[in-house]
């Protein structure tokens, strides 16, 4: 990429880091920008996923709030995300990736927009049933495995999916659920980094710029989360993503 485009990616990476940590789905933005620059989708995806762990470095400070029951799900998460990344890096062709991406983006939009309603519904059901403080392992572990495999493949809105999953099958308070989301995303993205780093899909200058600025963005994400409603951030990302998805479908 040219120096000007790297500067653009630096700004985009900063925004992505803030969104990733404060809400979810920030990594969609650099992916879309790279595609607009003419970077092949599999390469843009691998480059962004390689840089994404930097967004969640701050999550290491939240380990003390992690429920002990998450140890096994995190191990499962690591294995599943590696599997998903290997599939994309070795088996998925560029043409198949281009066909699938617009619909994955639309799925991400639905997840982003509907999450507030889903969480409200979950809370209402929980209050009516007087849910006991127990975790449903039969749903948590498979749910984490499925979302993590998806995270290794593409990962759009995976943070939202983890938030929704934990809200549905655990009685944990929101602060713990947010910590679980960030630590799970750190786990899946780090495993994706290891897989994609061994492939020839990563544009390393761009990945390094994104990683640095995503780390800065992630560090200030907590401040943004305290001052800007997460629903506003999610809807902003959803609007951009929907336009991009429709454009990709239109031009395919």
For the biggest sheet, the summary is:
none
Q: What is the C-alpha radius of gyration, as a whole number of Å? A: 17 Å
The first-to-last residue Cα distance is 24 Å
Return the string of H and E elements.
HHHHHHHHHH
Hey, roughly how much beta strand do the residues contain?
under 5%
Uncertain stretches: none
Give the CA-based shape: globular
Number of helices: 10
- Please tell me the overall pLDDT: 83
Structural class: mainly alpha
Indicate how many domains the architecture comprises: 1
How much helical structure, as a percent, in the residues? over 70%
| Number of E strands | 0
Summarize the structure.
Helix content is 77%, strand content 0%. By secondary structure, it is mostly helical. It has one domain (3-251).
Textual characterization of the structure:
This protein is an all-alpha fold. It has one domain (3-251). It has helices at residues 3-22, 28-36, 41-51, 71-90, 94-129, 137-153, 158-169, 174-197, 204-227, 230-251. The protein is globular, with a radius of gyration of 17 Å.
List the helices and strands and how they pair.
Blueprint: H1 3-22, H2 28-36, H3 41-51, H4 71-90, H5 94-129, H6 137-153, H7 158-169, H8 174-197, H9 204-227, H10 230-251
Helix pairs in contact: 1-2, 1-9, 2-3, 3-8, 3-9, 4-6, 4-8, 5-7, 5-10, 6-7, 6-8, 7-8
Transmembrane segments: 7-33, 39-57, 69-94, 100-118, 139-165, 202-225, 232-250
Organism: Kibdelosporangium phytohabitans
Protein name: Probable membrane transporter protein
């Amino acid at each position: 990429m040219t120096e000007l485009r790297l500067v653009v990616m630096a700004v985009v990476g900063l925004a992505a880091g803030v969104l990733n940590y404060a809400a979810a789905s920030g990594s969609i933005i650099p992916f879309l920008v790279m595609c607009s620059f003419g970077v092949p989708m599999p390469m843009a995806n691998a480059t962004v996923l390689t840089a994404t762990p930097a967004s969640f470095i701050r999550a290491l400070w939240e380990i003390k709030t992690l429920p002990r029951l998450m140890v096994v799900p995190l191990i499962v998460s690591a294995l599943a995300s590696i599997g998903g990344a290997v599939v994309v890096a070795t088996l998925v062709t560029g043409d198949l990736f281009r066909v699938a991406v617009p619909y994955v983006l639309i799925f991400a939009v639905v997840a982003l927009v509907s999450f507030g309603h889903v969480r409200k519904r979950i809370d209402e059901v929980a209050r009516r049933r007087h849910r006991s403080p127990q975790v449903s392992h039969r749903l948590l572990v498979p749910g984490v495995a499925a979302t993590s495999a998806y995270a290794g493949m593409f990962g759009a809105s995976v943070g939202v999916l983890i938030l929704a999953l934990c809200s549905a099958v655990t009685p944990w308070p929101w602060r713990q659920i947010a910590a679980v989301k960030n630590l799970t995303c750190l786990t899946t993205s780090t495993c994706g980094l290891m897989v994609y780093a061994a492939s020839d899909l990563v544009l390393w200058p761009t990945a390094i710029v994104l990683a640095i600025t995503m780390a800065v963005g992630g560090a200030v994400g907590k401040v943004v989360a305290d001052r800007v409603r997460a629903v506003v951030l999610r809807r902003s990302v959803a609007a951009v993503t929907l336009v991009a998805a429709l454009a990709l479908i239109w031009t395919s």
